[in-house]
């Protein structure tokens, strides 16, 4: 959920034709290919094409799935953890919660009740959830709209247009968060002005603190890849708005991030992006446990998909939440909201190209 540092000026992306290799890309999944007459295992495997389209920090995609009979088990893949920026696996579990929401939504869309059990084995904290088929059901209209927004959602790090979001959407987003047991604080450009300015300053300070840490820079640099590298994860240069033809300089970007403290320039750019965003939003939870983090992940994806229904994009400003001293300052600004978990900006922008995703075969522990 972290954005790559916008080290280089934005360049309008091209519309390069996709190659036939992308037939294996989960972004190209088509609901018409659902195996209606297939086994439950085949159906569950198909649903995973939507689960893997969830957002994650540095695009690490830290989830694994295990199919046991007619059940899917969700595990945290700690081999993809970010020990510097996310030492307690808080954002890792939030990412898995977003994947869980997509999975459950896909089941509902195709007419199945999902039966969910979270943290079914307390002695195994990486075993996050067990999901199984329930009875047949008729999906609600909103579930169909949300489901069809899954392949349309990706993190958009481009500058947002000077266009306000409708008030009706704000109410819908607040409902989406609360329906998943999360609190949503809307920080508009007008009200409360002082709080918004304080949040923007904390974003900039978070950039400077993180980039001053060589270990943070090394961790970030490890996840910067060229889109043509064959890797199905990590952060590409084109995701930052660079022309795809320049994506091959990703190794140079990685070297620069690892070698130099770019916090000052990054903080200036993020300050501008945040100041021009029509809306900043803070997702918070009552407590700060793994159960809360998983629920926040579901709330996050619900919110992001609802926004995409109205062609609204989002990107993340989690720097002040990832830094303990700044997180406490965010919490002090909104004390009635519990523990801050995710900070977003929302608005309208040009369509970006999504970052790569691991195909289902790469995230399955086994097929039962």
Describe it.
The protein is α+β, with helices and mostly antiparallel strands and 368 residues long. It has a single domain, classed as 3-Layer(aba) Sandwich (NADH Oxidase). The chain has twelve helices and nine strands. It has helices spanning 40-51, 90-109, 141-149, 167-178, 193-211, 214-221, 250-259, 263-276, 290-309, 319-322, 324-333, 360-363; strands at residues 63-68, 71-76, 112-118, 127-136, 183-188, 279-285, 313-316, 339-347, 364-366. The strands form two sheets. Strands 3-4-2-1-9 form a five-stranded mixed β-sheet. Strand 3 and strand 4 (127-136) form a beta hairpin. The two termini are 31 Å apart. The model is unreliable at 1-23 (pLDDT under 50).
Mean pLDDT: 91
Structural class computed from helices and strand pairing: alpha+beta
Tell me the CATH topology. NADH Oxidase
CATH architecture: 3-Layer(aba) Sandwich
The CATH class label is Alpha Beta
Q: Between the first and last Cα atoms, what is the distance in angstroms?
A: 31 Å
Looking across the biggest beta sheet, what order are the strands in? Answer: 3-4-2-1-9
- Tally of extended strands? 9
- In total, how many domains does the architecture comprise? 1
> Which bin fits the share of residues in helices?
25-40%
Residue fraction in strands: 15-25%
Spans where pLDDT lies below 50 across 5 or more residues:
1-23
Count of alpha/pi helices = 12
Most strands sheet: 5 strands, mixed
CATH superfamily: NADH Oxidase
| Order of H and E elements | HEEHEEHHEHHHHEHEHHEHE
Give me the Rg, rounded.
Answer: 20 Å
Shape descriptor reads globular
């Amino acid at each position: 959920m972290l954005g790559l540092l916008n080290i280089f000026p934005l360049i309008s992306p091209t519309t390069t034709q996709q190659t036939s290799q992308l037939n294996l890309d989960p972004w190209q999944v088509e609901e018409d290919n659902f195996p209606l007459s297939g086994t439950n295992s085949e159906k569950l495997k198909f649903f995973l094409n939507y689960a893997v389209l969830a957002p994650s920090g540095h695009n690490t995609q830290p989830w694994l799935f295990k199919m046991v009979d007619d059940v899917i088990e969700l595990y945290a893949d700690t081999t993809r953890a970010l020990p510097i920026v996310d030492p307690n696996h808080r954002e890792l579990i939030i990412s898995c919660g977003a994947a869980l929401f997509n999975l459950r939504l896909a089941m509902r869309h195709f007419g199945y009740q999902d039966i969910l059990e979270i943290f079914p084995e307390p002695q195994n904290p990486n075993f996050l959830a067990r999901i199984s088929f329930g009875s047949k059901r008729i999906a609600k209209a909103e579930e169909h709209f949300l489901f069809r927004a899954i392949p349309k959602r990706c993190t958009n790090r481009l500058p947002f247009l000077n266009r306000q979001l409708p008030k009706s959407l704000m109410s819908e987003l607040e409902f989406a968060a609360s329906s998943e047991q999360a609190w949503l604080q809307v920080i508009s450009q007008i009200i409360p002005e002082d709080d918004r300015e304080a949040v923007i300053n904390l974003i900039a300070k978070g950039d400077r603190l993180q980039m001053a840490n060589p270990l943070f820079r090394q961790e970030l640099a490890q996840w910067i890849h060229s889109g043509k590298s064959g890797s199905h994860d990590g952060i590409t240069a084109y995701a930052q708005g660079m022309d795809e033809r320049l994506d091959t300089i990703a190794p140079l970007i990685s070297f620069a991030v690892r070698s130099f403290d770019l916090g000052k320039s990054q903080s200036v750019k993020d300050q501008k992006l945040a100041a021009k965003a029509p809306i900043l939003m803070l997702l918070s939870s009552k407590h700060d446990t793994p159960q809360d983090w998983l629920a926040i992940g579901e709330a996050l994806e619900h919110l992001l998909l609802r926004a995409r229904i109205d062609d609204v994009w989002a990107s993340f400003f989690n720097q002040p939440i990832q830094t303990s001293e700044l997180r406490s300052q965010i919490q002090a600004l909104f004390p009635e909201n519990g523990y801050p978990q995710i900070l977003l900006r929302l608005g309208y922008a040009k369509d970006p190209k999504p970052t790569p995703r691991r195909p289902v075969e790469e995230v399955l522990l086994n097929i039962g």
